[in-house]
Each structure stands twice: as C-alpha cells, then as structure tokens.
# Entry
Amino acid sequence: MSEREYTTRQQLQMYLKAAEQGDAEAQYNCGVLYDGAEGIEEDLTAALHWYRKAAEQGHVTAQFNCGLMYSAGEGAPEDKKEALYWYLKAAEKGDADSQFKCGLMYENGEGTEKDRQKALYWFQKAAEQGNLEAKIYAEM
# Structure
C-alpha cells in the first residue's frame, strides 16, 4: 500500500465518523472517496448513499452528483425522473451545470415530458453564468 493510499484510507475513516454524525460536507467527501478515489475500492452504491445524505441536507454539489448517478444508473438503477429531481434542487440554488442538465432533460423529455419553454428557461439561466453549451442551446 502506497503512502497516498494509506492517507486516503485515513481520510475516509475520518470523514465516515463525521458523516455518521450528520455532517453534510463529510457525507459529500465520503461520496467522493467511494466514487473512485485512489486507494479506496470503488463502491458506487456507497458513493450514492453518501451523496444523497449530503444532498438531502442541501449540499449543492452532492445534489448534482446524485443527478449524474441516477441519470447514468450508477449506484442504483437508472432513474431519469430521480435524476431530474436532484438536478432541479441544485439548479434552483444557482448551480450552472445542473441548470444545463435540467435544460437537456426538458429538451429531450428525459424523466419528464418534453417542454421547450422549461428547457429554454434553464439553458438561459446556465448561459447567464457563462455555460457556453447552454448558450448554444438557448439560441437554437
């Protein structure tokens, strides 16, 4: 075991203690470590579990990551409706990447009915924050 792997395992143990006591940032960090950190065996189910715990407490990046994982079927069966739910949570808090993902999901009818007006709304929100892809979609 390399020194880096040992340090990562120590970090995980430290974060797990705080996460189990309800610390949202520690819960998010556990998710990150289980989501493929060097020295930690990848466990996407555990990653999603900890991301979701943090997301339920309002952690925006964890909400976005829940959206990614549910959309791709990582750590749980693919669930586009659940993905959209988490993207919307983060988008409503101003996360540009989540706003763009919401736009795509409404544009393509993933997890919801197709709705060009809602797609355009989210593309414009993301574009206002400098998301270039969103700007292209908003101008289509």
